[in-house]
Amino acid sequence: MRVWTSERSHYLDELIRLEGRGKADHSCHACGDLDTSYRCEDCFSVDLFCRLCMIKFHQNVPLHRVKQWQDGYFHATTLKHLGLRIQLGDHTGQSCRNPKPAREDDFVVIDIHGIHEVALDFCSCANAPSHYRQLLRGRFFPSTSTDPRTAATFAVLEHFHLLSFESKVSAYEFYHCLARRSDNTGMKPIKDRYSVFLRIMRQWRNLTSLKRSGRGHDPAGVDATQQGQLAVLCPTCLQLGKNVPEDLAHVSSNERWLYLLFLAIDANFRLKRRLVSNDIKDPGLSPGWGYFVEEGQYKTYLHNHADVRQESMCVSHNAINMADTKLAKGLAATGVGSVVCARHDMRLASGVGDLQRGEKYMNMDYIVFSALSAFASTPIVNFSYDIACQWHKKLWRHVSTLPSQLQPNRAHTAFNFFVPKFHIAACQTNFSFNWTPGVGRTDGEAPERGWADINRVAASTKEMGPSSHREVLDDHFGDWNWKKVTAFGRVLLRKIKEAIKAKTEHHHALTELEESIKQSDLGVASLTNWTNEVLAWELDHSNPNPFESRVTATTQVAVRLELLMQDAQDLEDRSSVSLHSDVTPSILISTGLDIEHTQRRLCADNGSLGQHATNEQQTKILARSNSLQRRIEAWTKIQVLYMPSVSQLRATNATSLNHTPSDDEESRCPRSRPNSVKPEDFQLLFPSDICSYAPCDPKLLHIEWSLRFAQANDALDECRSHIRLRHQLLRFKSQHLRGQCANTRAWKTVQAVDDWLVLSHDKYLRAHSALVCLSRHVDHVGWDRGLQPLKKMDLRPIGDLGGQTLGTAIMPWIWLTHGISSHDSEGLQDTLRVEWCKARARHNRWQEEIQLLLVKMQRVLAFLTWEARQWDERATLRMVERSEYAEGLIAYANRQAAIHRGLSASFSGMWRDVGALVSAGLDYGAEGEQDDGPSIDEPPHEDLDGVD
């Protein structure tokens, strides 16, 4: 830019120079005539021409913009004004013996250069085709088939078609851009042909989709088009007879999981449609031929079941229960429901439908099984739905009410149900992609990615009629699918490289975890039992779920309840006399821990105010400080009853006795200042603080030990939870969020999680330091095996190498426990079992992902080859009398066949090293035998159930 800035003035001079006639010789560049005053704005040459030469050179480019030199500057004029006439007919651009001007010699052409008024003549010879055919042969799309007076060039239609896909620009914005290019001053009003352009564009969309799907080659004609026949199919999905054999009976049980179908279901409430027009005023051009279900049958089914009340019993998801409360005033559709390929986010034929009042079961059931009807012989179908936990319960009762052609054959097809990974956590264990074998790394969130693209057209489609709305969305869905097809080469290659790397990393993580467990005989036996449990659950989910914890962890709340119950028992037995009528020793210590936590929160919030805190913020902090001061005063009055020595310690200013974490373990939480008089800095002096310097009741030491041990476990669980949440937020932000606004909000959320992690880390450090002090005076051993010093470098997720290489990195101890001992608590062994099951599942899912990707690559190549053969057959399928039509049919079929063969060859070239890459990346199996090295030609079909 700095280099360009130095030359900027010269650029400006050249732009201004073009406003004049240029060189001194102002004669006609073609004939030398001195009467020259015309220049074309769209030709490469900027030379001047006379009127006759300008007409001559623009016979084949009649839509260029020309200007006339007059009054010392260039004025805009038209070729029509100069006398150019456009002649249509068999020899477009040449003279005709019997020309017929357009009605009133008024014809408007919408072109990529602007909106032009032209002088156009039709051929009216004896054998001349109709006017609209003459226009089409000149690559002008007529506004009507009867006496057209407006047309749009193929070039502008193709340009807007692609532009609408990529930028989602509306027809209104594009048309007015052309109008401003024709006249940006408003002094010469352009004839309004906006409504005509809308009609032409709708017809163009319909014709291009019919042409690309081969309907022009079908002898039965366009009207014989079947439902979903205009859709671009997913090459990776199970397409019987296209990318897999027609008969799958030969597939073994171990390979069956490779022949499954992944479907993701979701609704989008941004794609609304207002209550404008109707099906009579806005007739459909492709009823049910694309991605939307056939509207007539769909509405009939909904009308017949309108009185059926469908409720969800899930308290965490109200999509169904809130359906009738969706704001529907003035709306014909509150959104759309959709079914997509869950692996690659490709829209399915007959897999989209309007939602009249929210996400009702009957709407979604009809849409789902309309899409599924094209996969009738699929052996396994995996449904991903954010309310699958509720949807599946009464699904088959609802399916029985569907039209018979939509009801699946449950005897030949198995159905599995999953909840997407970023949805309700409460349902993730029983409906998780992560823990279920045979699904690879499918996440079920594919619809959300597609919605992000299509949502940008919501503003323009909202005001359309019912058929226009469906057809525009159909067109965008088709382009989305085609772009997916053309990108499969690099996308699948990238995915398999990532899968090989991740599989290797998770193999090392699993091996390290298992080696640590096997350090004891009990650990070896436990691994065997856990393996049997998880294999049993994977075969039958009615067995106990090994991914669920079966032991309730020791928490502060549970310990406090136990201590209070013990106090009540002691008072009942008169074995202990409380020194205070309301506060027992356990209440004293537990209340002190609450006050300590409040101090840390107040200290952190006060430190985050900054230099420009508002009066309201300062008022809230001061109110909390005053409340804390009163709590401390009340607590210390009771404390001296049970711990008399604290009075002397405070009187002698012995305030440095409390346990402070070392510098290596220092958290980012602000530290208390011993000389401060603020309540958040007040030293509470627990038994652990003074037991090495002054006598203390052993009962108080045991009580604090129990509470601190539970506090440390609670804090460690909080740290793990915050680390996982932060990792997921950062990954989601990196993959899905763009723009300053979205990223700023995301960073605020991440910062809030970081603040929680700091407080939890500080809580653990204080609890651990207290336990170290107390362990010298109470009889508790082995506690430090599970509660080690927690450094900042340990606060990272599994898989984070902490700046080290894969071979030298050490997993943080918070995720790893060394060995299993008979002295370990039941809770510790339970936690380790769950973590091992998850580590094993992660490794197996990546192993499956590699195998699925290899199969997908093979299917893509097979599908493209099948498509090429289909076009070869279509070339001569339809017999026509005139040779030029026959040649056009053959040429287009040949071009489409060449495109699909070219894609196949390109993908094969990209993937030629995949077999060697996979072979090099796969580790030895569980029994030490080396993998055979799968390839895309012969993908692996091993049974992964025995792989650990």
Produce the secondary structure layout.
Blueprint: H1 2-17, E1 38-40, H2 51-57, E2 66-70, E3 73-77, H3 79-82, E4 85-87, E5 99-101, E6 107-111, E7 114-123, H4 131-137, E8 140-142, E9 150-153, H5 154-167, H6 171-182, H7 194-212, E10 260-268, E11 273-274, H8 295-304, E12 331-333, E13 335-341, E14 347-355, H9 361-372, E15 380-385, H10 388-391, H11 395-399, E16 414-418, H12 446-454, H13 458-461, H14 466-517, H15 521-539, H16 556-573, H17 585-607, H18 615-642, H19 645-651, H20 687-690, H21 698-736, H22 740-774, H23 826-874, H24 883-910, H25 914-921
Parallel strand pairs: 4-7, 6-9, 10-15, 15-16
Antiparallel strand pairs: 1-2, 2-3, 5-7, 6-7, 8-9, 10-13, 11-12, 13-14
Helix pairs in contact: 7-14, 14-23, 14-24, 14-25, 16-17, 16-21, 17-18, 17-21, 21-22, 23-24
**Radius of gyration, CA atoms, in whole angstroms:** 38 Å
Class by helix and strand content? alpha/beta
- Beta-strand residue percentage: 5-15%
Give the helix proportion (percent range): 40-55%
Number of helices: 25
| Assembly level | single chain
How does the major sheet shape up?
6 strands, mixed
Instruction: Tell me the number of strands.
Output: 16
Low-confidence stretches: 321-325, 805-809, 817-824, 923-948
Mean pLDDT: 84
Distance between the termini: 57 Å
